[in-house]
């Protein structure tokens, strides 16, 4: 009489299959982000992703049934990685000293990265494409608002009012985001760094003034 596979064996086989499936999905997303960096959304082809990942077209369709599903999953991965880095950076802070400097450094890591421009391209293209506009807006809002709220909460611990902390963070991110774009259209120079240092100094002085007004 043929014996039935044990529950333990079945569980291990299923887990191994799940792991293989997750590994293939990760490879597809890595290749997708790579292709988006090279070709942008307008030139993005799912066949190129499958080739780069070394998987069959059928396997790619199994995990991501359409170009839009693959693109939105790639966007979510980019934003989730950025959020993870932000939360890790905040968790490592042991004091309130130089909090704005840490916030600036975290903003530069995201906005000066290739991943930011991949995300920016997808977001802009997504807003033009009615099919994925709502999902793109939801993903962007979910992850970037989480990062924003995390930094606001940390700045509040330095003695700032929540509204003031939000204003300071918005100015900071707007400047770094603008500098990131400006760096793409001109020769490299020390100008962005000088502007960053100037804005950091201005915001630090402004934050100190707000604290004095609040606490006397």
Automatic annotation (TrEMBL):
Residues 22-82 form the HTH tetR-type domain. Residues 1-14 have a biased composition (Basic residues). Keywords: DNA-binding. Coiled coil: none annotated. Residues 45-64 bind DNA. This is AcrR family transcriptional regulator. InterPro entries: Homeodomain-like_sf, HTH-type_Tx_Regulator, HTH_TetR, Tet_transcr_reg_TetR-rel_C_sf. The lineage of its organism: Bacteria, Pseudomonadati, Pseudomonadota, Alphaproteobacteria, Sphingomonadales. It comes from Novosphingobium marinum. GO terms for molecular function: DNA binding.
């Amino acid at each position: 009489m043929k014996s039935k596979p044990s529950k333990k064996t079945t569980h291990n086989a299923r887990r191994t299959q799940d792991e293989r499936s997750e590994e293939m999905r990760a490879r597809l997303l890595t290749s997708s982000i790579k292709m988006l960096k090279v070709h942008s959304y307008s030139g993005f082809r799912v066949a190129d992703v499958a080739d780069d990942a070394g998987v069959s077209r059928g396997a790619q369709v199994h995990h991501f049934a359409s170009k839009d599903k693959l693109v939105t999953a790639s966007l979510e991965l980019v934003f989730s990685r950025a959020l993870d880095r932000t939360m890790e950076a905040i968790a490592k802070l042991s004091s309130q000293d130089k909090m704005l400097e840490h916030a600036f450094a975290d903003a530069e890591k995201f906005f000066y990265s290739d991943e930011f421009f991949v995300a920016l391209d997808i977001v802009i293209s997504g807003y033009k494409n009615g099919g994925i506009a709502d999902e793109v807006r939801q993903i962007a809002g979910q992850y970037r608002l989480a990062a924003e709220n995390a930094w606001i909460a940390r700045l509040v611990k330095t003695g700032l009012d929540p509204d003031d902390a939000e204003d300071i963070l918005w100015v900071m991110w707007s400047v770094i985001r603008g500098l990131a774009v400006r760096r793409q259209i001109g020769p490299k120079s020390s100008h962005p760094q000088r502007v960053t240092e100037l804005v950091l100094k201005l915001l630090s002085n402004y934050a100190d003034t707000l604290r004095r007004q609040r606490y006397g």
